[in-house]
Amino acid sequence: MATERASLAEPSAEARMSGAARAQGSIGAGIVLRDVVKNYGDFRAADCISLDIRPGEFITLLGPSGSGKTTLLNLIAGFQKLDSGEMHVDGAPIDHVPTHKRGFGMVFQSYALFPTMTVAQNVAFPLRMAGVDRATAERRVAETLEIMRLSEHAQKTPSQMSGGQQQRVAIARAIVRRPRIVLMDEPLSALDRRLRESIQIEIRELHRAIGSTILFVTHDQGEALTMSDRIAVMDAGRIVQIGTPVDIYRHPQNRFVASFVGESNLIEAEIVQRRGATMALRNRAGYVFEADAGHGIEVGRATVLVRPERIAIADGPGPHAMPVTVTSALFLGEVLRIEARTDSGETLLIRCMDAAGRSLPAAGERLHVSWGAADCWVLA
Amino acid sequence: MSAAATSFADQRHGSLRGRLSNPALLLLPAGLFLGFIYLLPVIDLVRLSVGGPTWSTFFERVFSVPLYWDSLVRTMQISLTVATLCLLLGYPTALLIRRTSGITQILITAAVILPYFIAILIRTYAWMVLLGRNGPVNKLLVGLGLLSEPAQLLFNRGTVLLGMTAVLLPIMVLSIYSSVSRLDAALPRAAQASGAGPIATFWRIMLPLTLPGMGAGFLLVFVAALGFFITPTLLGGPGDQMFAMHIVQQADFINSEGFLQALAVVLLVITLLFVGVAGHFLGFEFIWGGSRAAGAAGQASAADAGEGGAPRRSLLSGLADRVGWPVLRLLGRLSPAWGSWTVFILAGAVIATLILPILVVMVISFSSASYLTFPPPGFSLRWYEKFFSDPNWMDAFWHSTVIAAASAVISVVLGACAAMGIVRSEIRGKSVIMLLLVSPVIVPPVVLGLSLYSLFLRFDLVGSIWGLASAHAIGGIPLVVIIVSAALQGVDRRLEQAAALHGASPLTVFRTVTLPAIAPGLAAATFFAFLHSFDELVLSLFLSSAQLKTLPLMLWADINYQLNPVLAVVSSLEVLLVVIGLALAGPVLARTRAGA
């Protein structure tokens, strides 16, 4: 999905980068965290976190506010000190290296552009600090502004630019040194939706072009799914699951991940029977359905995740369909979002594509729904 | 025909009502009051100063007599030194306030704010106690064996500089802090993430961003120091005469009319000149603690940032690059802990300087000795008894209270109306009007006192309670205008519009929506106007009579005559008043600031 859209944006960041710049393009560094702990008084913000970030990977820390994702980012950036644990970048410990010597790039939620400097001076700042000579610095700044399509704004001050432009300047400043690691702290949360989507694509392309490891923090699950190679879902100071976007969305390991990422129906059901790789379950309304029995739950109750778009609406009553009563229905454009109640009183969320001949059901209308074994995921 | 006539009458009636309900009219009372008691006398002062054989006769005398010329140069030197010292000591203190949090931050802030509201006279007196022959500093030096006998530490240039710096430091700290606290906390982090070490972050990011606050603080301190009278008189020796002191001395000679006014005009013009130049660069908002830079950043006004900012900035940064940066690179080789230690030690010294004298005076007020000595030989309440049983002190206390209350009423009524007028009307030239309303703050009190004296003689107001209260209100009104207009700006206009939409008349809107919202601000303004009058000394020196002594006047006479512990009692009571007032007004003030 992301790739498709990326190819529409023209010209791409890769195309805009000169051959020389691409050849220099640094290969990202790997980050290893071992049992990282950080307390604020009695509050444990990071609770024994271990994480392996592969070189050049785009990894996202996803979680609600207070889940510890920003704490983890601040620890990696060096703004805060670890209470215990270890941090290594490319095999070397960095716990005692001050922020300004870590050589990472960072993008802030508030942009944090220096208001007294022009765009060009802001982008040149990391190079000046690194002692790069003036001519080289000017060339690199021009190149980077070109990549971020900011060349004509070089002499403006940040206050003269829109939010989206300011964020692109902030990104330019973070990548101008071609850092091994770029940290991004909810960089898109202050932008409106349309702009957010276009900058998402831009960041994604940029990642491919420069090859740095990107550690991205967000509370927006949609953003995490679109952009990341891997997502680490955080809750209460711990990483609760780490995996590819598809993995996280389709195979969440617990209720928290299932309900935090995407919309979900969590169905309480009783295991009726096991047949090899599949098992039969019955929900409270008496509807019997099949699911993969991968998780080794033998008997008793299970929680089953069925995503709203996996629920099919049947033409009429049948042995493999469950009758439900519509409580509300919304037309969202390409999809219909239907809320219904089962006969045992559970709420069921259904999404289906808008299709020819399909009308928006009225509240109180009876529908018959079903799902297959491949549409269910039994939570551990 | 008749219908047409009625509607015509209605219309006229409406437009008359419309004109009367124009909020700009609210500016009128304060305008008339200040015009009569502030502008007119100052104009009269200028008229007298040019009333010699030729217009410049008196001025030529001012500039040709070495006594005055030397004093003018000395005043400049002292003011510049004091402003520089305040800047060097104030900056680390402001940084420390920002870096600390919780109870430490509250304590440090209190240590800075508390002295700010205590009378200059009392703080100067505290230094006299601290540095006196029997004071703690002498005792300490003798005790350590550094001195064989107590030395005369007072009455030299050093003590003048020390005293004035200590008195004016809070202004600097608050001014710098207001610009430091507005900084986005992510900015220093962004600098670090970009590879800037602590020194580079300070030099490249923090310093340029806090420059407006530093500039404003420097100017406010410098201008206040130019007109200083109390501290140099009490702490200085014969060689430390400042210009304002000459004006007071000359005022005792009847035959110096014209020349006396010329002296005052010189001081006034110099003050206004500096304020004018500073206002041109910083925006005149610096006088009342506003900031043009902040406003521009908030509204992202493209034109403003584009034309005004760029050339000056490049000149400054060029200078910074060539001179400052190489020096700082050398410092960069020191361990990073040095930076924090410098801030810590300097700021610690500042806080001790601000709060220690006050503590010493409070301890001494409970002394059992019949003269000033520290540490006191024993505890007693004898000086409190003496204060409360002496009719002279009690009379002065009563006079001061009545005058301050009357002055607070005048200031709040006129000032609050004017603030409404300025915030709520569509009148043109708002900033000029605001500048005029607030300008009494920068006029040296000595000049104000002298100009008022002839007005008071003409209308027989000298030594009258209402006369003094009105004179004190000249300085009280600006305080009220500043606080109340900030509070008013914090009120959401849409709330008022919503009330009106639901059928409330303008008066009901004011009573039910606006007034409750600005009530805390009004309360704070009342307290500060009261305190301003209660502490006022210089105007009272010119305008009161032997029958109407105020508390500061009694203190002043006693300090010059003999330093006794009764003064410490008065000082302690004043500190108590300020602490209680601040404790009550503190939360209110914080909210007002946040609103502004």
TrEMBL record, chain A:
It comes from the Bacteria. Its EC number is 7.6.2.11. It is a peripheral membrane protein. One of its GO terms (molecular function) is ATP hydrolysis activity. Residues 31-261 form the ABC transporter domain. It is found in: Cell inner membrane. Its main location: membrane. The keyword ATP-binding applies. SUPFAM superfamilies: MOP-like (SSF50331), P-loop containing nucleoside triphosphate hydrolases (SSF52540). It catalyses: ATP + H2O + polyamine-[polyamine-binding protein]Side 1 = ADP + phosphate + polyamineSide 2 + [polyamine-binding protein]Side 1. The keyword Nucleotide-binding applies. Keywords: ATP-binding, Cell membrane, Membrane, Nucleotide-binding, Translocase, Transport. It is an enzyme of class 7 (translocase). Gene3D superfamilies: 2.40.50.100, P-loop containing nucleotide triphosphate hydrolases. One of its GO terms (cellular component) is ATP-binding cassette (ABC) transporter complex. InterPro entries: AAA+_ATPase, ABC_SmlMolc_Importer, ABC_transporter-like_ATP-bd, ABC_transporter-like_CS, Mo/tungstate-bd_C_term_dom, P-loop_NTPase, PotA-like, Transp-assoc_OB_typ2. Transmembrane segments: none annotated. Part of the ABC transporter complex PotABCD involved in spermidine/putrescine import. Responsible for energy coupling to the transport system. Belongs to the ABC transporter superfamily. Spermidine/putrescine importer (TC 3.A.1.11.1) family. The complex is composed of two ATP-binding proteins (PotA), two transmembrane proteins (PotB and PotC) and a solute-binding protein (PotD). This is Spermidine/putrescine import ATP-binding protein PotA. It comes from Bosea thiooxidans.
UniProtKB/TrEMBL annotation, chain B:
It comes from the Bacteria. Pfam families: BPD_transp_1 (PF00528). Belongs to the binding-protein-dependent transport system permease family. CysTW subfamily. Coiled coil: none annotated. GO terms for biological process: transmembrane transport. Keywords: Cell membrane, Membrane, Transmembrane, Transmembrane helix, Transport. Residues 72-278, 397-588 form the ABC transmembrane type-1 domain. PROSITE patterns: ABC_TM1 (PS50928). GO terms for cellular component: plasma membrane. The chain crosses the membrane at residues 20-40, 76-97, 106-130, 160-180, 201-230, 259-282, 338-366, 396-420, 432-453, 465-488, 509-531, 566-590. The keyword Transmembrane applies. CDD domains: TM_PBP2. This is Putative spermidine/putrescine transport system permease protein. It is found in: Cell membrane. It is a multi-pass membrane protein.
